[in-house]
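Hi R.,

As promised, here are both runs. First protein below:
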Amino acid sequence: MEEQTRLRGWLVAKNLNINCLGKYQDLGFVYQYDDRLHKFPQDEVFLSDGERISFLDGYIYNKEAFICPEGYHDWQRSFALSLGKDVAAHLEKMRGAFCGYSYERETGDVIIYTDQVSNKALYYYVEGDKWMISNYVALIVRVLRANRITCHFNPTAARYMLTYGYMLDDSTFVTQIRRLLPGHYGKISDGRVRLFKYYEIPCDEEQMSEKEAVEQIDSAFRQAIVREFTKDREYGYRHLVDLSGGLDSRMVTWTAHELGFREQVNIAYSRLDYLDQKISAQVAMALKHEYLYKAMDDLTWMYDVDEMTCKNNGAAVCLGMTGGNRLLRMLDKETFGIEHTGMVGDAIVSTFYHDKNLNDQSPVFGLNQYSNFLRYSFDEKILTQYKKQEIFAVVTRGLLGAQSSYMIRQNYLETGSPFLDVDFLAAVMAVPFAYRKNHHIYLKWIADRYPAAADFIWEKWGVKPRESEIFKRKIKTTGKLAAGYLQKVSHKPSRSSMNPMDYWYQNDMDVRKYVETMYKERIADDSLPEDLRHDMKLLFTAGNFTEKTQVLTVLSAMYLFC
C-alpha cells in the first residue's frame, strides 16, 4: 500500500514550514525535501556553498561538455558555474532528462528549469516572499495545507480536461500552482516569476530525397538509442523496454538490439489474447529477450483513479496509462535504470495530420480533443506560442498530455524515448511533410534499414508494415470504419482493441458500480462551480467511457488538491 501512495519526489521551499513532508534539510534560507529514486546519482547535482545552491534531478548524456578547470574538473561545480554564466545557452546545450533550480544567496533570486521536452516535469508556487518548487503538485498542496494556505480550484484546467483530456498551457487544478512548460526556464525574484523560452521544436522543412530522409532519420535515431541505452550501461543496469503491437516501441527495442544492447527485458500489457500481446511476444521471442506481460482483464487497475491523478499531477486523463502502473509495481526495480518507451514516435515521424494545409496552418482550437461534446472558448494567447498546428499538437497532446504518464513511471524508474531526443527531433522535423504523411517515410525507413522488423504484424492495420500491403490496409481501414459505425448505431461496445474500455465498463458490474458511485458522491460537492457541475453531468451521462474518465479526473483532482 505504501508504494501505491508514496510520491518519489522532491521539494524546496522558502519561508514555509515543510515538516509535514517528513525528514528534510535546512540549507540556510531554504528547506529541501528529497525522496527521489536516485537512479543516476553521479548525474545529479546538489551543491550548496557560500554563494549558491544548485540542484539538478535527472540524467545527462553530455556532462563532459560542461566540465571545466574553473569547476575543478568536477561535474557539479562546472554545472553551477555554467548555468550562472548564461542560463539559456547552458540549457539548450544539455542533452538528457532534467529539471531543477539554482538559488543565489546574495540576491535571493531563483532560476527554475526543465528540459527541452519536459521529460522531468516541474511545478512552482510563488506568493510574496514565499515560494515552492517540486516535481509533484500533491507535495506542494500538502505544504500549503500545513501552512493553512487555501488551494483554490482552477475551472480553466477543468475545462481543458473535459474537452482535450490534458492541459493546454501551464495550468494545474490549483490556481496558485503552475507548471513550467517544455523548453522553458523561469526567474523568481521579488515575489514574481518571469518566464523565458530557450528551446522550441523546429518546424522548417529542408529539400532532400527520400533516400536522404531515411538516412537522416536512421542516423539520428541510432544516435539517440546509443545515448539512452549507454546511460543504463554506465550504471550497470539492464534495459527495460516497452513493447506493444505498434511500431514505435518495436523500433526502439529492435534498433537497440542491433546496436548491441541485448540485455533487454520487454514489458507489455493489454487485453488478454489481443494482437498487442501476440505481436509483442513474437518480437521479444525473435530477439531472444526476456518478456514480462500483464493482462488487464482483471480490471482492478480501474480502481486507481485517485492514485493515477495524484501521480500524473492531474495533467491528463487519470486512466491514460491503463495497467502499466500495476505492472511497474511488480518489477524488481533495482535491476533497471530507465524505462525506454516509444513515446510520441508515431506523431513525430508521421505527423498528426494528412492534410498539408491543415498541418501548416496557424494553430486553432478544436483539433486533437478527446471530446467534442462540450464547446468552450479558450484564450487565443495560447495559440500565439506556436508557429503552426503540428507543433501545437506535438507540445500539448504529446509532451503535456501523453508524456504525463512519465510522471507516474518516475515513481519507479527514470524514463526516456529516443523519438523525443532533441537532435532526433531536429532531424525528423526537417523531413518534408509529403514524405512523413500517411506513415510513408516511417514504413520506408523500416523496409530499407530493418526489414526483419516488418515481418511482424502492425496492430494498427492488422497487416505487416510494408507499403506493398497498402491495399490490404485500406480494406482493413474500411472494415474498421464500418465496424465502428455499426457499433455506434447498435450501442454495443466492441471488444476488439488493446483497451476495450466501453466493453469492460458495460460488462463488468463491479467496475460500473465503482465508477458511478465515485461520480455520484463527488459531483454533489458544494464547492464545485454550478456551471461545471452541469457540464460534467451532461458529459458523464451521455459520453463514452473515455469521456466519463475525463469527468472523473476533474472530480478526483478537486478531491485530492482542492
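And here is the second one, sequence first, then its C-alpha cells:
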Amino acid sequence: MMIERVRWLLILILLSAASGGSLAAAGSVQPADLDLHPDATVATAAVEVDGRVLFRVRGVSSFPARERAAAITERIKRLAGDPALPADSVRLVESGGYSSIMAGDRRIMALFDSDARIEEVARETLGLALCERIGKAIDEYRHDRDTQVLQRRGLEAAGATAALATMVTLLLWLARQLNGLLERRFRSRIHHLGIQSFEIVRAESIWAGLRAALSALRMLSILIVSFIYLDFVLSRFPWTRWLAGNLTDFALRPLRLIGEGLIGYFPDLIFLIVLALLVRFVLRLLRLFFDAVAQGSVTLLHFEAEWARPTYKIARFALLVLAVIVAYPYIPGSESAAFKGVTLMLGVVVSLGSSSIIANLIAGLMITYRRAFRVGDRVRIGEVTGDVTQVRLQVTHLRTLKNEEVTIPNSQILNGHVMNYSSLAKKQGLILHATVGIGYETPWRQVEAMLLQAAARTPGLLAEPTPFVMHKELGDFCVSYEINAYCNDARMMEHLYTELRRNILDLFNEYDVQIMTPAYEGDPKQPKVVPRDQWYAAPAVSGPVDDAPATASGTQRPLPG
C-alpha cells in the first residue's frame, strides 16, 4: 500500500513539473490531480475530425498537446472506420483518480480532474459530454463516406459549378451594360478639375479612375461569388471540409493584417499622400513653365529654348529623388531587415547595370548644353553623315543621305569628334572644295580661270564671298589646284558637289585641258581629252553647248584675259 502511494506521489510531482499538463494519452500518462493557478497559461490543441473541432486537450512535457490531440484523433478515425463497432458503444469508465473514455474494449483517451478544472465542470460531466461528441463524430464520419451521400453531394457540387458559371457570365454582362450606360450618359459631362486656368486633374484621368473603380467592383463581385462557391463545394466532402473551414481565415487574414497595418501607419500614409500630391503639383508647374520657355512665350537671359526640355527632365529627376529621400522613413516596413536587404540588392543591381546608361545621360546633357549641334543640323559623327532628327538623353538620331535612321550613343559622340556643317553656313557660309591635277604645260592662270568659271556656272554657290583657288601641291607630273566656293545651305552639299564636279569636267573638256589626277603614268600618243562630239554620248542627255569651234586635237585654246 505504501509503495502504491509513493508511486502516485512521484507521478504527481512529474506532472506538476511539466507545466501542468492535463490530458495524457491512454497508457502513456497515469492518473493525476493537478491544482492550477487561475492565471496559468495552458497550451492546448484541437481534436479535429473531417474539419470539425470536437474538443481541445492539453499536454505535458513528455507528450505535448499537439501530439496528444493527433493521437486521439487517429484513434477516433480508426474506430469510425471499423463498421463492426457501433457508435453508441462509446462510454465513460471511472477508474478511481481518473476516467477513461472507452469504445468497446478500446480506450480512446484518459480524463483527469485537472482537465475538468480547466473547463470548470465536474470530471464526470465533462466525460459524458466528450462521449457524446465522440459518438456523434463517429456517426458523421461514417455518414459522410456513404456512397449514396457522396453521389448526392457530387451532384450538388456540379449544380453549384453551373450556378457559378451562370453568375460570372451575368456579372460580366451587367458590367458591360453599366460601362456602356456610363459611357453614353456621363462621360461627356465629366470636366477637368482645376483652379481657374490651372488644370489639376484631366477629364480623361477622372474617367479612367471611374473605369478602374468599375473594374475593381466587377472583380470583387466575382471573387465573392467564387468564395461562396468554394466554401459550399469544399464543405460537401469530408476530405476537403478542413479547407472550407480555413477558407475564410485564408481570405480575411491578409485583409486583417493590411487593415491593422494601415491603422498603425495611418499618420505616415497621410504624410505620404500629401507629399505625393505636392510633388505632382510642383511637377505640373515646372512642366508649364518650361513648356512656355520652349515655345518662346517666356524668355530667360542667356537661356536657349532648346535647353527647356532637358532642364525640365533634370529638375523632375532631382525633385523625385528628393521626394523619395523625404518619404523613405515614412514608408511602411522601411525599418525592417527585409526592406533594407531588398533596397541594398536593388542598389547593387542598378550600380552594376547602369554605368553605360549614366555615361550616356551625362553625355546627352553635356551635348545639349554645349550646343554641339541642334535638331536639323547636318553633321558628321565618326563615319556617319546625316541630319540630326532627335537629341535624347541616351542617344542621338541621325537621318543619313540615303534616308537611313542611325542611332548613336551620346557617350560615343562625347568621346569622338563631331563635324557640324550647318552651324556657320547661314552666317559665314560653308566652303565646298574640289581638287584637280593639271599638267605643267597648262598656265596656272588659265586653270584658275576655268575653275572659277566652273564655280560661277554652279547654281547654289554664292558669288559673295568670292570663290578662290588654292595651289595645293607641285607634284611629280602635275600641279594640284583646289577650287573653294561658298554656300549657305548645308543640306545642299552633296548636290552642289555633284554640280561643281560636272561643270569642272565640262569646262576642262571644253578648253581641251587634261585632268591628270588621281593617277597619271605618262602621255599616250592620242590626246587625253573627251572630244566635243562625245560629251553627250548615251546615256547622257543632249543640251545646249558653246558652239565656239574646237581647236585641233591635243592643243589648248587660251582663255580670254
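A quick note on the second one: The chain is about 50% helix and 15% strand. Let me know what you think.

Best,
J.
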